[in-house]
Amino acid sequence: MAEIYFDNSSTTRVCPEAANAVMKAMTENYGNPSSLHTKGFLAEQEMRSAREAVASLIGARPEEITFTSGGTESNNLAVFGAAHARKKRGRRIVTTAIEHPSVLNTVKRLEKDGFEAIYLKPDSEGHISPEEVKNAITPDTILVSMMRVNNEVGSILPVEAAADAIEEKHAPALLHIDAVQAFGKLPLRVSGLHCDLMSMSAHKIHGPKGIGALYVRSGVHIEPLTYGGGQEKDLRPGTESVPLIAGFGAAVKALPDLEAELSAMRSLNHCCREQLAGIEGVTVNSPDDAFPYILNFSAGNVRAETMLHFLSEKNIFVSSGSACSRGRASHVLKAMGLPQDRIRSALRLSFCRYNTKEEATEFFAALREGLSSLAVQQLAGGHR
Q1: Which residue out of 15, 195, 324, 352 is catalytically annotated?
Q2: I need a labelling partner for 69 at 20 to 30 A (CA). Which of 54, 132, 278, 291 fits?
Q3: Strands (E), the chain
Q4: What is the model's pTM?
Q5: 324 is known as an active-site residue
Q6: Are 217 and 195 in contact (CB under 8 A)?
Q7: 102 Cβ contact partners less than 8 Å away, ≥ 6 residues apart
């Protein structure tokens, strides 16, 4: 039975280029990049090449890239680091109610330390109003943290409005963009976005897990979370994981043309929406202008976990939301004000360059079968 994997927002299959780079760094260029001999120099070269690749993709300088263990650490370092570095200039933090838990829980922790947090609410489609963003930013705002693309419904957040408001109101705020879902899929230029901090992760773009990066604009100071021997400009000290960094760089270099991939994903997404439109009782939760790599919908009267198990038995893999939520009800769909029956039955399809329309056709055949048989089972169970 062929595998159909539509859970790429959770993680992706590592591409051959990245896997080979990891293996080479583990078995050949295995030196400590801080060592002053040839092995150390070769390892440092691997790191430099990867840093240049990541920086080039977002229009940054290599020295503005700090390697981390992934998106969660990048978000924690950005939010904690910025808040504590700027706390003498204000205590107000603006974010949204639909951020990833690595931002939301970090901001909640800062509230316990006396910071004021503003959580902007989305509309019923997951959009955040640019006007609300501008109104929330005040002259004493020290940090604005927003994702570029929501990881559950694919709404694109108005980070540009935040940059404009910070400038207009002369706020001392740093702008942090969680670009984990957008990096390597949407064109991102830090100069055009006017951001100070940007979080990225390798395993969303067919790189290895356990490695990510934080862009820190030159001249911006944030406080580190850890202290050690001075690696990564003292911002993230500790012996660097050269194999994972090499894999990250290789995954970036292996990315296809972003515009061509966006076009292909729009076509696949449109195909899926057309199929969903023909299934009774199914409701699409992603807005029409959503990021095309993500499509969230509610599967009639069948609970998401029940449908997930049914599909898994057919070697089809989707999700019920963020993998980091581990089955808990979606805080994103709750914030959108959706009714409980739609939240309980919500499924997320998330695509990558290896997915095809033929796979989508097979998926929807299985979904229809599941909706029919599982609804009957649940109805029978309710009569016992």
Answers
A1: 324
A2: 291
A3: 4-5, 65-68, 92-96, 116-120, 141-147, 174-178, 197-201, 212-216, 282-284, 294-299, 316-317, 346-350
A4: 0.95
A5: yes
A6: yes
A7: 71, 72, 75, 76, 178, 324
